[in-house]
Amino acid sequence: MTPMPEQEIFDGKVSREVKIEPRDWMPDNYRRTLIRQISQHAHSEIVGMLPEANWITRAPSLKRKVTLLAKVQDEAGHGLYLYAAAETLGISREEMTRQLLSGEAKYSSIFNYPTLTWADIGAIGWLVDGAAIMNQVPLCRASYGPYARAMIRICKEESFHQRQGFEILLTLCRGSEEQHNMAQDALNRWWWPSLMMFGPPDDASPHTAQSMQWKIKRFSNDELRQKFVDMCAQQVSVLGLRIPDDRLAWNETRGHYDFGEIDWEEFRNVLKGNGPCNRERMEDRISAYEEGSWVREAALAHAEKKKQPQTP
Amino acid sequence: MNHEEPLWEVFIRSRQGLDHKHVGSLHAADAPTAIENARDVYTRRMEGVSIWVVASRDIHASSPEDAASFYDPANDKIYRHPTFYDLPDEVKHM
Q: Between the CA atoms of B23, B25, B30 and B35, what dihedral angle is there, to the nearest 10 degrees?
């Protein structure tokens, strides 16, 4: 079958690094893939506010509290940039919200783990935001214009998130023995789930090849995961902590760190809804939506009333 | 009544003397709320000194499919550019 001319125009743009914009012709599957990826990403930002919000009222100082508030507010903003980018592909915000609340849409498995101590806020900043940045920087060059532009905005703001997290851990590591242990415990619990954030290994990631051909993705899951491990293995020495992996070792021949086997059974199980906090996260989102409904109704009613001509 | 809040396109002037530039879109019940939301979503780090919001349904756009014919009138008029005119090297500052 000879390809349609639209397909040729589209392929040509992608190969010449010309961005695809909302009103341009695009293959249905490209559109579907983007809607799935961008909306999952948006949901992750929104659900990702919950584990950190858990510590806003108990932050150890006013400085840490304003920082955490600003970070959580950024995440709401990132969710909104991404929802808006997804909407340019023809899906409504209402529909995306429905998909999230019904459990039909996925969000990053990492947010189904609990934040048990203050050190977890440091570990999230360093590891979870660190992994997110590693994933997101190449997305700034994604072939779909609105997605790429949203990612540029997000990446500019994300760097402070990672740095403040590292600073929290560093402060704890230079504190009392108890504080040092608290930091180590947080690293122990967050390390492996952070590695899972890059998604299944390349040989079990069916969409990767197509996404790379469309220039939505630029690096495979395993490539990004390796970069992340290499980065953390260096940085952890500054903290004086230990990454909980006996097989972590520098491999001279590969020029990378080797690392241990990831428990993919745990990953699949959390994705299926059986992680420690899946139910709690969904309940929180559903109640936020339901309890906010009167605000939305009132705002619309007010706007409607304002539109009517004023009687003297 | 439609329960989805209307969509607004947001334009921000990043500093005095520059044009307003499109930065993205958001939902809000009315224009004043859209401006406040735009402030919170797009200017958390002093990215703007002025915000415009325009209801997305009021934006009319040219069609990408017709781009070739639509811009055709300008396509062969190289004489509109200064480099079209050959002047001797002795002529300075022109």
A: -20
Q: How many Cβ pairs within 8 Å bridge chains A and B?
A: 54
Q: Provide CB contacts within 8 A for B13, sequence distance 6+.
A: B19, B20, B21, B48, B49, B50, B51
A window 106-135, beta carbon within 8 A of B: none
Question: What ipTM was assigned to the predicted interfaces of this complex?
Answer: 0.86
B51 touches chain A (CB under 8 A): no
User: How far is C-alpha B83 from the chain's CA centre?
Assistant: 28
Is A303 within 8 Å of B30 when comparing Cβ atoms? yes
pTM for this predicted structure: 0.92
Tens of pLDDT, residue by residue over A13-23, are 999 999 999 99
- Over 80: is that where the pLDDT of B3 sits? no
Q: Do B20 and B52 meet the contact criterion of CB atoms below 8 Å apart?
A: yes
Give the Cα separation of A229 and B1 in Å (integer).
52
- DSSP for A190-245 reads HHHHHHHTT-S-GGG-TTHHHHHHTTS-SS-HHHHHHHHHHHHHHHHHHHT---S-
Which residues in A lie closer than 8 A to residue B3 (C-beta atoms)? Answer: 94, 296-297, 300
DSSP 3-state of A261: coil
Compute the distance between CA of residue B54 and CA of residue B50 in angstroms, rounded to an integer.
14
Query: Phi first, then psi: what are they for B87, rounded to 5°?
Result: -120, 150
Report pLDDT digits (tens) over A108-133.
Answer: 999 999 999 999 999 999 999 999 99
Is the pLDDT at B51 greater than 70, yes or no? yes
